[in-house]
Amino acid sequence: MQGTIARVSPEQDFGFITPDEEGGEVLFHRSALHGSEFDQLAEGVTVEFTLGRKESDQPSEGLRAVDVRLVEDAAPVLDGEALPVEKVGQA
């Protein structure tokens, strides 16, 4: 699935993704992120993710994003904000 970062809470090690398909926001934990650092995420950055559960999850907790990766053409982040395409390479 693909979606965009809705918000990130670095002090609590989690964030939320808004899927491109219909539905509400999906929770993800810092440990679900692969191939980039948690502080590289900012609102609006495009990610790919898989829905699932961790072994420690309770059945009532619902699904979460368990494999989160930046989309290859996602805008890079500088100082917590995604760079506009026209500024990529100027940072």
Which helices and strands, and how do they pair?
Elements: E1 2-9, E2 14-19, E3 26-29, E4 46-52, E5 64-70, E6 77-78, E7 81-82
List keywords for this structure.
OB fold (Dihydrolipoamide Acetyltransferase, E2P), globular, mainly beta, 91 residues
Short description:
The protein has strands at 2-9, 14-19, 26-29, 46-52, 64-70, 77-78, 81-82. It is an all-beta fold and 91 residues long. The protein has a single domain (2-87), classed as OB fold (Dihydrolipoamide Acetyltransferase, E2P).
Number of strands: 7
What name does the CATH topology carry? OB fold (Dihydrolipoamide Acetyltransferase, E2P)
Radius of gyration: 13 Å
Domains, number:
1
**Lateral strand order in the biggest sheet:** 3-2-1-4-5
Report on the biggest sheet: 5 strands, antiparallel
Which stretches of 5+ consecutive residues score pLDDT under 50? 84-91
- What is the average per-residue confidence, as pLDDT, rounded to a whole number? 78
Q: Helix and strand string, N-terminal first?
A: EEEEEEE
CATH homologous superfamily designation: Nucleic acid-binding proteins
General shape: globular
Q: What is the count of DSSP helices, taking H or I runs of 4+ residues?
A: 0
Which structural class do you get from the secondary structure elements? mainly beta
Q: Could you tell me how far the N terminus lies from the C terminus, measured between alpha carbons in angstroms? A: 29 Å
